[in-house]
Amino acid sequence: MTFLRSTAILAVLATPALAADPELTVFDWAGFEEPVLFQGYIDKNGDSPTFALYGDDDEAFQKIASGFKADMVHPCSQMVSKYRDAGLIEPWDTSKIPAYADLDPQFNGSDVFHDDEGVWYIPTDWGATAIAYNTEKVPAEDVESLSIFTNPDYAGRTSLPDSSDDVWALAYLATGVTDWTEVSDEQFQAAADWLREAHQNVAAYWSDPSEQAQLMASGQVDVAWSWNDGVTYLKADNYPVGFQRAPKEGSSNFICGFVNMKDGPGNEEKVYDFINAWLAPESAKGLLDTIGYGPTTVAGMETIKDEEAVKTGLGPIDAPILNQTPNDPQLREKQLAEFEKIKAGF
Asked: Where is the signal peptide (predicted)?
């Protein structure tokens, strides 16, 4: 993806939708409208779905809760309870999703995703959040610790995601917490204090990966807490980027997927055409090449297991990993509120 393309993504964020097939509206992350991710849908239906794009899970939820109509939404796993508790989604009919049985249990093990009332979530993709850095300006030893984000030498040279989940994953790791399903008040406060310190170094909070990539490519920042996407975009433009997934405190992994909206305005059969195209093994290489993420099916991962991008961006690491699995919704709301205070300087 070139930065001309990245700029185009930012531009469409201000538009209601990228109009195509009027019988399916997908509310998705910016960058995920690439046809290579769902070519099977186009082959069957003759066009891409209509896409509306967002850059943040909470932003997407608020728009849906306020009445925006879509057939499918692509939240990450910790948002599933929020959609379900609000009565916005309905169970999937897995008999219409042949690849459901091939989902890797490590990505589909949560009882938040499926219970006695049905399957509420189809995990489709996963990735890492770690340190992206300019290898020509940042010594390798400086990214051996997450303390680079609080190091005074990097004041005004860092960027963090405008995403509560990702910044709290960073803060918990930096303060010694690797499991956010059980966080004490003391651990929460230690992470909040660390985030306030890290905030002092932040030049800008990025709202989507293309923005993060542009911040680094322009020279505005040299270090970012990044998903695979931003690193993939920078590499495509020959930017000297490193992706340190094994600082001593560790890094984070996340899972994203699709929910089926209740009373969606489109054609329900096309909802299943789309999810089946996403889960097809032949979509895995496009997902890796375009976004840098891995598929959640065993068959999909098998097709890309020897790719260099898997080894560097998704493979095993010798460091702790905080998995961004579904956590306590009340804790998540507390984190979100505290993050807003921190960004405002309080």
From this structure: 1-19
- Mean of the pLDDT values across residues 27-46? 96
d(CA 311, CA 274): 28
pLDDT tens column, 94-144: 999 999 999 999 999 999 999 999 999 999 999 999 999 999 999 999 999
Task: For residues 174 and 97, state if they share a domain.
Answer: no
Q: What share of the chain has pLDDT > 70, as a percent?
A: 95
CA gyration radius, the chain: 19
In the 8-state DSSP scheme, what is residue 48?
Answer: P
With residue 223 as reference, give the H or E element that holds it: strand 223-227
Residue 207 within any structural domain of the chain: yes
pLDDT of residue 132: 98
- The pLDDT tens digits for 154-182 are 999 999 999 999 999 999 999 999 999 99
pLDDT range class, residue 20, cuts 50, 70, 90: confident
3-state SS assignment for residue 287: helix
Alpha helices in the chain (DSSP H): 3-12, 39-45, 57-65, 80-85, 164-174, 185-199, 209-217, 228-236, 268-279, 284-290, 298-304, 308-313, 329-343
Domain that holds residue 80: 22-126+254-314
* Mean pLDDT of all residues belonging to the chain: 93
Task: Indicate if 339 and 217 belong to the same structural domain.
Answer: yes
Residue 198 CB burial class (10 angstroms; 0-12, 13-18, ≥19): buried
Same domain, 150 and 105: no
CA distance 207 to 57: 11
Asked whether residue 10 is assigned to any structural domain, the reply reads no
Task: Tell me, yes or no, whether 14 lies in a domain.
Answer: no
CATH of the domain at 269: 3.40.190.10
d(CA 83, CA 253): 21
Residue 216 lies in a domain: yes
The total number of structural domains that make up the chain: 2
User: Would residue 219 be called left, alpha or beta, if left means φ above 0 and alpha means ψ between -120 and 50 degrees?
Assistant: left
